[in-house]
Every structure is written in structure tokens, then in C-alpha cells.
């Protein structure tokens, strides 16, 4: 089992719709969860971070965390063509130094 | 001003050569990282330095040797390059070596070994 699993996609949604990106992780002691966006040929950039169970909202983005189910998701409301990118889920263990484990990413395509 | 910069951006070289990639951050961060992103876009950590001290050393061939002359710089030297080393190498930095810290990535160095 991979440490961090994501559906590779592509996930295609029409402009204005809600895009839902999912991620599961295997390490129960994980405490920090991140969503990075990576445009083609560019470097990853942080979109959201979440540490506690529940929802965290930032503009059009909502991160959801369920530690019991070892599941984290990212919702993008009112999807725009500029949201088309690969979204990387990243997970960090509790304690010690930061050793982030990334998923393979989900490619999102927002269709105008 | 570029927060995390890498040189070169592109590197094309022959098998067996030795090459170096340089990284600099002007964010005043204590911690720096090297990641490798393969052709399938899988991003995997290689090394991490905190205040010039190596703190993460993943299962990476001995041909890869990082070096941090100061907190703002982290270089990666690769000996005897192999075809499988072809990838994008990203440098990143964070304020501290803390599990909740945001990592800021450089633009990447695209290495192609022929």
C-alpha cells in the first residue's frame, strides 16, 4: 500500500462546478496535511494546510480531514480554467523533523 | 525577488559525467530540502538540512552528495550520472524543521542524462 494515495485522473469538471479531490494515507500517526498545486512545468505551491479533523475554508478552497478514516480532501468551488493543474496531497508524520510524503497527484481539468 | 532559486534550470549531459545543482533561498529559513520528481510526477524527498546539519537522508545512491555551506545554500552534486537520474530536481525551504511548516519550492532543475 502506498503511503499517500490519490487518483491520478484526469478529473474533468465544467467551469463553475465543484471539483472534489481525494487522498488517503496509511500512517495513522500523521498529523499535518497539505494540498499543493502544480502547474505543468512549474514547481508545487501550497494551497491549503490542515491539522485538525473537520473542514478548513480559504476562499474557494475547502480542505476536509478525517483522521479516523485516514482521508483528506480538497474541494474547489466555482472551478475556473485557471484551476487546471495537478494537485498533490502531502502528509507529514507527528514528531521529529519535517519529512513530507507526497501522493502522485490528481490532474484536474476545468472545461470552459 | 526570487525566494528560492536554482541553477541551472536545464541540464543535459552524458552518462558517467559529474554535475552539480545549486540552490539559494533569501527567505531567512533554517531548513532546506532536495526533492526528485520523476517522469510520472512522483515527488520524493532526498535530503534535508537544518542549520547546515543533515537531518534527512533518504535511500539515495551514494553518487548523490548534498552540501550546505551556509543556511541559505544547499547544493547537490551527482557523480557518474545514470539514465535513471533524469528527472526534475526541486529545492525547497521552510522556516523550521517543523511538521507544520510550509515548504517553498524553487523552479526546479530539469536534468536529462543521455
Judging from the principal axes of the Cα atoms, what is the shape of chain A?
A: globular
> What number is the mean pLDDT of chain A?
92
Strand content of chain A: over 45%
N-to-C span of chain A: 36 Å
Low-confidence stretches of chain B: none
Helical content band of chain B: under 10%
Most extensive interface:
A-B, 26 and 25 residues
Low-confidence stretches of chain A: none
* Residue-averaged pLDDT of chain B: 93
Topology order of chain B in helix (H) and strand (E) letters = EEEEEEEEEEE
What Rg of chain B do the Cα atoms give? 13 Å
| Protein structure class of chain A | mainly beta
Shape of chain B: globular
Helix content of chain A: under 10%
Number of strands of chain A: 11
- The structural class of chain B is mainly beta
Detailed description of the structure:
- The complex is a heterodimer of chains A (112) and B (114).
- Chain A has 112 residues and is an all-beta fold.
- The relative contact order of chain A is 0.35.
- Chain A is globular and about 45 Å long.
- Chain A has strands spanning 4-5, 11-14, 19-25, 30-38, 45-50, 54-58, 61-66, 71-76, 85-93, 100-102, 106-111.
- Chain B is mainly beta.
- Chain B is built from no helices and eleven strands.
- In chain B, strands 2, 4, 5, 6, 9, 10 and 11 form a seven-stranded mixed beta sheet that branches. A four-stranded antiparallel beta sheet of chain B has the order 1-3-8-7, with no helix packed on it.
- Chain B starts with a strand and ends with a strand.
- Chains A and B meet through strand 4, strand 5, strand 9 and strand 10 of A and strand 5 and strand 10 of B.
Amino acid at each position: 500500500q502506498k503511503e499517500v494515495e490519490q487518483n491520478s485522473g484526469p478529473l474533468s469538471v465544467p467551469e463553475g462546478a465543484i471539483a472534489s479531490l481525494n487522498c488517503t494515507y496509511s500512517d495513522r500517526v500523521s498529523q499535518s496535511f497539505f494540498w499543493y498545486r502544480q502547474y505543468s512545468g512549474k514547481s508545487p505551491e501550497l494551497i491549503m494546510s490542515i491539522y485538525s479533523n473537520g473542514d478548513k475554508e480559504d476562499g474557494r478552497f475547502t480542505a476536509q480531514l478525517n483522521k479516523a478514516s485516514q482521508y483528506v480532501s480538497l474541494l474547489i468551488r466555482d472551478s475556473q480554467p485557471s484551476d487546471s493543474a495537478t494537485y498533490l496531497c502531502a502528509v507529514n508524520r507527528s514528531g521529529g523533523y519535517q519529512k513530507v510524503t507526497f501522493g502522485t497527484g490528481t490532474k484536474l481539468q476545468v472545461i470552459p | 525577488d526570487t525566494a528560492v532559486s536554482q541553477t541551472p534550470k536545464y541540464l543535459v549531459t552524458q552518462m558517467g559525467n559529474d554535475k552539480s545543482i545549486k540552490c539559494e533561498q533569501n527567505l531567512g529559513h533554517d531548513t532546506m530540502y532536495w526533492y526528485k520528481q520523476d517522469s510520472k510526477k512522483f515527488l520524493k524527498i532526498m535530503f534535508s538540512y537544518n542549520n547546515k546539519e543533515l537531518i534527512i537522508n533518504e535511500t539515495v545512491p551514494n553518487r548523490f552528495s548534498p552540501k550546505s555551506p551556509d543556511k541559505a545554500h544547499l547544493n547537490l552534486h551527482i557523480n557518474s550520472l545514470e539514465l535513471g537520474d533524469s528527472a526534475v530536481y526541486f529545492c525547497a525551504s521552510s522556516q523550521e524543521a517543523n511538521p507544520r511548516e510550509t515548504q517553498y519550492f524553487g523552479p526546479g532543475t530539469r536534468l536529462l542524462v543521455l
